[in-house]
Amino acid sequence: MMSGPAADRRPGRRWESPGVSCDGSRSSLPSSLVAVLELFRGARGASLSTPRPGLGRGVPCPLEKHSRCSHRLPGRWIGMVRRRWLVATVLVVVALIAVGCQRPQAQQPAAPAKPASQVPDLGGRTIHVATDATYPPFEMLDASKTIVGYDIDLINDICQLANCKLEIKSTAWDGIFPALQKGDYDTVISGVTITPERAKTMGFTDAYMEVGQVVLVREDETRINGVDDLADKSVAVQRGTTNAEAATNFQKQKKVKTVKQFPTFDLAVKALLNKDVDAVIIDNTAASGYMGTNPDKLKVAGEKFTSEGLGIVVRKDANDLQAAFNAALKELKENGTLENLYQKWFVEWKPS
């Protein structure tokens, strides 16, 4: 009985070429491999079925294309050649079926697409920023007179998300909010505490940091252990701050003897170091900054006695800026940037 392609050519059954998968469906074997199998099938058919004079089924002569075959092979050689063709054909078929039946390697799932930013696009506009660069580590001048600090890094990160450019200038605290209202600046970022009174005339972003007021004293101070020990003491503050408001209220309540107000906290701390005052009322984060710039000279007496949020200030009608800044702050909080900035400026930063 015939086997192979010839035997499969019966009515109702169509013989397929070797590009067939294990389950009978068409496979995706490479065309080059299919061609090789077809070549072997054709060669085998020729060797086993082509009659030769005097030999019955003969072996093709390698030189037949160019000259007549002038020799005849013995019968045992014919059988050996047939077996070799058969074995070679079977090996090729098995190899090709094995290749075709290999399961594709499991592909690694694609990484989830990064969610698109929800920060409103400010269209590349320039934002004029005011800051009082005397408040380390929030804002200060480095050795090259460049404004650096936590707030500066923060507003830069915000503008990267909101697609805006920055022009930052240091402005005296006394005139910083009037300059904003007049239109000289678009925003103020300078460790500004969010208060109901300020919110009546200015817009604020959501709080980007929670702080509390503390009592800063000299390192060798032993008389003051907290805010309750200031009744007969003099304190210094920066004018126009919530710290000044707290000190003034304490004075009205006879909890502080004298309040001295300065244009900057730099001058207030200098007065403390010079023993012109007994303490400075200041936010805990800024107190850490001044202790850093004056190592082994200052310390905090007691615990925080308030809890307040710091925000970025915009004009009351600047809803687009407020929305963009809030969205950016939300994203920076979620992706860990705010935590990294705090680590950089309030833990790792050391004054040069």
TrEMBL record:
Source organism of this protein record: Candidatus Segetimicrobium genomatis
GO MF terms held by the record: ligand-gated monoatomic ion channel activity
Designated name of the protein: Basic amino acid ABC transporter substrate-binding protein
Record domain Solute-binding protein family 3/N-terminal: where: 126-348
Region (Disordered): 1-28
Assigned keywords, A-Z: Signal
Basic and acidic residues composition-biased segments: 7-16
An annotated GO cellular component: membrane
Domain Ionotropic glutamate receptor C-terminal: from-to ranges: 126-348
Pfam families in UniProt: SBP_bac_3
Top-level division of the source organism's lineage: Bacteria
